[in-house]
Structure formats: structure tokens, C-alpha cells
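Question: what's this shape?

___
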Amino acid sequence: MSDQRPVPAEALALGPFEVAADPAAIAAFAAATGAGGLTPSATFPASWLSTPQLKEALRAAIGPDHLAVHESQSFDYDRPLRAGGCYTLSALVQREAAPARLVIVARATEMDGAVALTMRSVMRLVATAGERAG
């Protein structure tokens, strides 16, 4: 089931980025989270938010005066991820003001264009000391 929540018109589009369900990355994620098995866990795609290009774009959206703290996440699968599978990840990022949040809605598609999943991640934005003082 895909995430059908509306995305505001002022959302920033990021991507597409190439991501993969690399067996070594799956094993590292499983070891770090306690998930077992050789297939991607349901939350494995969250690791894709740390890919260098996407991480850089998200840091720019957050800004230098805020720290992002995980608030929530959801994963809606249309089909399971395959170990060794390659995907295209595109994201819409919306910054909210009250409370300060960054909402990321990302869609992973297979190389043939079929949607594999839609994930939603919410990050609470906490002002750094310099921002609070200013």
C-alpha cells in the first residue's frame, strides 16, 4: 500500500539517486539493529537516507543552525526488496515550522519503474546553541 498523504506544493524534490539492497549493507544493518536474515529488513531502506548525495541534500535542507532528531518513520511496501536489487530513490522534502520538522517522503522504484516502496521519515529540528542565542 502506498503512502497517499498529500505533499505540499512547496516541497523540495531530491533525486533521483541510485540505491541498492547490497548484501554487505544488509548484513551491516542487521548487525547494527539486531535484525536477522539475508534479506532486507522492513526498515533497511532508512539506511538509504545516509547515502552521501542524499545526506548532503538533507543537510542543506536542515540548515547549519539546526540538528535533526528522529521523530518517526513508516514504510509502505508495494513489493518486497530483493537482496542485490538496484533501485531509484526520489524524495520530496518539506520543512514545517511549528514545531520545526523536516518531513521526507521517498519512493524507491525498481529499474523497470515499478514502485517497490514509499517511506516517510520525520525529523524534529532542534535549534543549535547559536540559533537560540540569536
User: Anything to note?
Assistant: The two ends are 44 Å apart (CA to CA).
